[in-house]
Amino acid sequence: MRLYLLPISTRRTLLYCQKLKVPASDKQTWSDKIQGKAARTWSEWEKKESGWQKSVVNYGNLLQRRIPYEEWGLKSVPPLSKSRKDTELKGTEKVEVVYPKSLLAMDKVPRVLETLATEREALHRKRLIWCFVGMPFTLPVGLIPLIPNIPFFYLVYRAWSHWRALSGGKHIQFLLQNNLLAFTPSAVVDEVYARPKQPLPSTPETTTAPDADQLKKLGPTPDVAPETPEGETLLLSQEHGKKMTQALNLPALEIELERAIWQVETAIKKSNAETATEGTGSTTETLKGPKSDDLTNAEDKKP
């Protein structure tokens, strides 16, 4: 496999794992079989012109787009099976980590990887537990005829998603602890980042990631641009995200970049809107001047 670190903004970086080849010793697990079956079923439902299956797919795609891109990135990393662990420990080649040296210094790459692998660990574990807690309460929905128990299957999917994210993070930590990574700056990636000429969305304040309240105690994600530590600027537009996938010849990366750019850009716009609203509110208070009650009290206090 090969790892990619692609900064989305001056504060956030996308992790993506490219699967080069499956080790011969790795057999298809039950999880892989279920995932393959679900993907085929989903594809069949997408092709339908109408009906409840088409509605489920439409709403499902909207929900998937809102799942944090950090979770999708960790899910792209395969779980660390015993055979894969032995293969990586005995292997002569290290796992390549591709990154833009114009935005990430080599000595910071391990820290960025470690942060991405561990910062959401407690959150995924907590939500995995809650998914299992909620499953029994959705079972009565299965008594409704003709319609599958969608709430139950949704919780099953989210539980699997959190488990895969946890497993991907553990795999990254294993590679870091055993010095099994080779950091490779990419001129191709740097060239794509150098292309945008138009100003990209930015905000003077750092935007909060999805579920930031739960992540506050875990510390911030390392900056990719130390010269702008207080604010946040988008580094890739949707157009250049597509050019990135073309330059790297990674079609599967396109949807991951599209989702990540949309989430970060939305957060930046929301932050700017909130800042503008707060500014308008304070200006309005200033223009209103002191309240009549305050003036009355001031008169009463005169000697």
Automatic annotation (TrEMBL):
Listed Basic and acidic residues bias regions: 288-303
Region described as Disordered: spans on this chain: 195-229, 268-303
Low complexity compositional bias, start-end: 273-286
InterPro entries in the cross-refs: Mit_KHE1
Keyword Transferase found: no
GO biological process, alphabetically ordered: potassium ion transport; proton transmembrane transport
TM stretches of this protein: 128-147
Keywords per UniProt: Membrane, Transmembrane, Transmembrane helix
UniProt key word Membrane: yes
PANTHER family: K+-H+ EXCHANGE-LIKE PROTEIN (PTHR28062), TRANSMEMBRANE PROTEIN (PTHR28062:SF1)
Name of the featured protein: Mitochondrial K+-H+ exchange-related-domain-containing protein
Source organism per UniProt: Lasiosphaeris hirsuta
